Amino acid sequence: MLSNQILQRTINEIGDIIECNCSIWNTDGVMLAAVGKEKPAVKKAVCSFLKELEVTDVSEEHLDECYGLFPVYDDELTYIFVIEHNNEIDVHTSGRLSVCQLESLLRSGSERLDRNRFIQNLLLDNLLLVDIYNQAKKLGITVEQRRVVYLIEPKNPDDTIVLDMIRGIYSSGTGDFVTAVDEGHIILIKSLDSTDDYDTIRSTADMLVNAINTEAMVNVRLSFGTIIPELKEVSQSYKEAGMALDVGRIFYPERNILSYRELGIGRLIHQLPVSLCEMFLEEVFAGNTVDQFDEETLSTVDKFFENSLNISETARQLFVHRNTLVYRLEKIQKQTGLDVRVFEDALTFKIALMVADHMKFIENRK
To answer: Is 108 exposed, middle or buried (0-12, 13-18, 19+ CB in 10 A)?
Structure first.
């Protein structure tokens, strides 16, 4: 089925060409689009024609002295196209040409729908390997093609303008696919040339984020997975992009572009079993939680880590006396037994903070 907007635009174009009143009706006898005003006689003629089709099961048009009625099929009867007679046109030829146009639009819409459904099932791992190859061949989609999956997350899930914009940039005719499997994310499956590498992919990501921010006035976060050589592995790159968004949300909130290959220790922690994380936190914090530390202490140790455990530089940037900084760091040692001035203990404490953030993310998502 076509949207009423498409039907009205199409009927306006047809009406401009044949220069007479015409309309499109559904199989319930309801007018969907028209050039000219609806007339009771037209509705009566359409309802009569529909009853005739039910009884005789014919697929031919019906012409009389007032109207030409033409059935429009998409596997089954979908619309009735009506032309009002005038003395300046060939109703039969005009009607048949208009029906061809409408049926072409229906086939095109069905093909787009089939492709979109196939891509969504592919992303969600809902297809057997043999079905992937068979359906891809039927839909004319290249199987052996380098691709990467981008996942775009608008700050506001209701910003549908982003989906429209991405579809405008990457039409399916180019070998790229734009779809969505939930309300909060837009998926772009991008075809790659043999020379494209991760620098190219990063440049495309920068271009997309800048274009969306500038033209659509929408803030987005974007992630991408690894390059995959075949269509069957698209779900892998999609899952990697999804993980990159999650890891970025927990550990790198300041980044708006995230690559699965550049997540560092955050990716490792995100894949740890919950039981192992709980055991590690129990060991480090001696039965307490990260909440035992006040905000001042946490911000101090973060700045200390940023400055590579340099006490003098950290004190200067925090505008505190060196002894004050040492006091704060020693307070952590009293609470945990870890001296963060020592690299090994600093590393343990840093990982513990990241694991704690990961556990909070999991808890909030339940």
So the answer is: exposed
- 0.85 surpassed by pTM: no
Which amino acid is located at 1 in the chain? Answer: M
Phi, psi of 175 (to 5 degrees): 95, 0
CA 275 to chain centre: 33
Q: Domain of 212? A: 124-268
The dihedral through the CA atoms of 195, 197, 203, 204 has a sign that is: positive
Q: Which residues are bridge partners to 67 per DSSP?
A: 84
Decide if 253 is inside a domain. Answer: yes
Dist CA 119 CA 47 (whole Å):
40
Quickly state the pLDDT bin for 110 (edges 50, 70, 90): low
Q: At what angle do helices 91-123 and 234-251 cross, to 10 degrees?
A: 60
Model confidence at 5, pLDDT cuts 50, 70, 90, reads confident
Strands 22-26 and 177-179: unpaired
CATH number for position 302: 1.10.10.2840
pLDDT value of position 59: 64
Bridge partner residues of 313 (DSSP): none
Look at residue 60 in the predicted model and tell me its pLDDT: 76
Is residue 56's pLDDT more than 80?
no
* Mean pLDDT over each residue of the chain, to the nearest integer: 88
Angstrom distances, CA of residue 238 to CA of 79, 153, 179, 249, 299? 39, 13, 12, 17, 35
pLDDT band per the 50, 70, 90 thresholds, residue 189: very high
Residue after which a domain boundary falls, among 107, 136, 165: 107
Quick one: 199 and 322 in the same domain?
no
| Residues contacting residue 181 through CB under 8 Å, at least 6 positions apart | 120, 123, 124, 187
